[in-house]
Specification:
Layout: H1 3-37, H2 42-45, E1 53-54, H3 57-65, H4 74-77, E2 82-88, H5 91-103, E3 107-113, H6 115-121, E4 131-137, E5 141-143, E6 146-148, E7 153-160, H7 161-174, H8 183-232, H9 240-249, H10 257-266, H11 270-278, H12 289-299, H13 301-304, H14 312-321
Parallel strand pairs: 2-7
Antiparallel strand pairs: 1-2, 3-4, 4-7, 5-6
Helix pairs in contact: 1-5, 7-8, 8-9, 9-12
Length: 327
Amino acid sequence: MNREQEFLERWRRESPAYSAWGRFVVEKLSEAISAIASPVELEVILKIPVKARLKAEDSLLQKAFHRGKGYQDPYDEIEDKVGVRYVVLLGSEVKKIDDAILSVNDWIAEKARDYVQEQMLRPYEFDYQSLHYIVRSRNLINFDSTEIPADTPCEIQVRTLLQHAYSELTHDTIYKPNVQATPSLKRSAAKSMALIEATGDYFAKVHEEIQAALANSEQMSLYLDRQYRSWTGLEVSHGPIQSLIVDHYARLVGADFEASIDEWWSSKQFVRERIVARSKDQVIYRVSGILLVYYCVSRFPNAAKEDSPLADDELALIYSDLGRSLN
């Protein structure tokens, strides 16, 4: 049996453990990111579905024996036999995943590449950017009925969507030793990376200004979510209609809104019955913004119907509940 056959025999025996380790990493890291990013949903942050991927056999063999890597023990020195990639929109979200990786106690994390540090060391260069970690199982783990030995490695890559696009376009061409990229091609790639880095900075600035503009509405939404759960005993549904309701009706209320709606609710307990009954088959009664609609119809009946995001037949029911007529 030659060295390639020996390598493959071992890989075929151990690949189920690597596959289980990759799935374990995805599960634990996703939980950690969710905890750090809360109340933002994980699906909002991640722009590409996350899946652990095993390296193909031929790819492993080529890396181990035919790419001039100079491995003394190629099987153990190749650390990306299984890998996971996280793609986000903003650089600030890369930092959240960085923090999440370091927060998990089930593995030992070693940073293999950090594009922020590379920018500081080579500020005049514009090159491939990605955050790479190698995480190794701290102890023997049993996951999905599979034993994962201690010290099993998995590579985690974290990129912004722009960095990912650049990598997909160029990495297999410019950064492989068997390809002789021309000076013109390298220059074009560097200009693209410079533009991507600048665009990333602009994205961060736009995001910052959007968050500042939405701060009051988001704070009101969080308050309404809490009160909806407390007052109705129901779980909150999220979606675009919540933002439409809160953004529209927030302009009618004052700085004392929370105290005012608390006082209003204490005398309008019958509203709870209407919300609970209709929540079974009408989605607007499952978003917490419905409390704000009832409050505004009660306090500002004329203004509440002007350009409302709710249809007239939906508003008419709420006006009727409060002993008023929409017209």
